Amino acid sequence: MITKTKQGNIQGVSDGSVIVFRGIPYAAPPVGSLRFCPPKSVKSWNGTLLAQNFGDKAFQPKDIGDNTGYSEDCLTLNIWTPGIDDKKRKVVFWIHGGGFVSGSGSIPKTSGRAFAEKDDIVYVSINYRLGAFGFLHLGDLLGESYAASCNCGLLDIIAALRWVKENISSFGGDPDCITLMGQSAGAKCIGALLVTPEAKGLFHRAILESGSIQAIRDRNTAQDITLSLMKELGLKHDEVYKLLELPAEAILKAELRLCASVRRAYIFGPMVDGLTIPHPPERMIEEGIVNNIPLLIGTNKDEAKSFDFVKPNQTNSKEYILNTLFGKNGPAVIEAYNKACMVKAEDDAWYEILTDYLYRMASTRLAARLADRGNPVWMYRFDFQGSSGAVHGAEMVFIWNDCITSIIPPSGESLAKKMHNAWISFIRTGNPQTEELPLWKPYTSSECKTMLFDTNCSAQALNRLHENSDFPMQMIIL
């Protein structure tokens, strides 16, 4: 269970028929003078690295469903493999969600054990910097040395991809067949990686679950968030340098106060900085500056119903919620909601509009634009209601189809098998079509065929009732 990488030998542990390597450093710890800086190369080590325990997760609220600690020293990855040999298995590179402020690669329900054991796939999960540590724009306040601070989390992922590209053959994986897979903020990271020149050639397929390019923000929006965080910390403009020296816990507490508003999980995200992301993503897609790879993109039918912070109450009216969530885009969403109320019950219209403007529109528009540029794209929508409904994140237990880490309702067992096999087919071939599913054609802007995953699956051209072509791809503009 010892294998050799470019940095040195690593020893994993057995987990049934699978070998697991936990807590492998893929970049230097971003601590001290490296806070808010792009990741640096990890140093080689002497002897054998014992990869038995998960590394600390990125700074975030403590309770996210795993038992690891958290720290700024968080740039590690984990690998589940069926064997250390020359077999060149397909590789899955999982990017966790959590609104850019929480999550980790060690959460049990996204373990790679099932993929490695049942499907002979090498599975990689990572930690990357979150919140202010990964996405705070400091270039305008601290100068050129911090010009990339707004995309440190994205650059962490690129560093991990480079490590995997260089070393995965030592774990029985194929460096020329890497599929990115991410959910929510993880999918939004993938959307950003599609328009990041540095990431080109580091992955070959991509699966985006409930996320697109809507989290990529302009400089003004990112600057507004930076100033808001400084205000929470009681810092003036000329005291911004203190961010380099403050205890990480102090920054996290200020971040939590900032995220306590209605906007919550939509505070942070990548930025068009002229470096990592050179231009607005729409322009880069139009000019063909994207990876021409197969893509599987989708959303859930009732995404917004899982979020308590969008429920109106005596303190937060619907107008307040929409204006806070979307900033300058708020009036357009209010108008769409009022129109929807003419044909729908108010509650139905509310959640449908939020789902559309937070998730669905960005995903379908990205799919259409990339398909028009020649990318093979397949679209899906998760409709299965079960006991919790087709809410944000509900599809994940079906995709993993792992009864050890998650409970799948008996009524959904057949669907879980179909969805898992479709994802495996895409990982292996770049096409999610299986014999268990009806004909699933690639998505085009003219035909718009989408696979609806439900008790009975069907491919349909969905009605775009609330489509707004004038709404910006950037969901929140401040």
Looking at this structure, what is the CATH superfamily? Alpha/Beta hydrolase fold, catalytic domain
Report the mean per-residue pLDDT as an integer: 94
% residues in beta strands: 15-25%
Q: Tell the overall outline.
A: globular
What count of domains describes the coordinates? Answer: 1
Main β-sheet, spatial strand arrangement: 3-4-6-8-7-9-10-11-12-13-14
User: What's the count of strands?
Assistant: 14
Helix content: 25-40%
Distance between the termini: 51 Å
Find the structural class using helix and strand composition: alpha/beta
Task: Please provide the ordered H/E string of secondary-structure elements.
Answer: EEEEEEEHEHHHEHEHHHEHHHEHHEE
Low-confidence stretches: none
Rg (CA only):
21 Å
Key traits:
478 residues; alpha/beta; 14 strands; 30% helix; globular
What's the SSE blueprint?
Elements (H helix, E strand, L loop, with lengths): L1 E4 L2 E4 L1 E3 L2 E8 L22 E3 L25 E6 L7 E7 L17 H7 L2 E5 L4 H5 L3 H4 L9 H16 L5 E11 L1 H10 L10 E5 L9 H15 L14 H11 L22 H6 L8 E6 L17 H9 L3 H11 L5 H27 L4 E6 L13 H5 L12 H17 L19 E5 L4 E4 L17
Parallel strand pairs: 2-5, 7-8, 7-9, 9-10, 10-11, 11-12, 12-13
Antiparallel strand pairs: 1-2, 3-4, 4-6, 6-8, 13-14
Helix pairs in contact: 6-7, 9-10, 10-11
Structure in a nutshell:
This protein is of the alpha/beta class and 478 residues long. The protein has 13 helices and 14 strands. Strands 3-4-6-8-7-9-10-11-12-13-14 form an eleven-stranded mixed beta sheet, with helices on both faces.
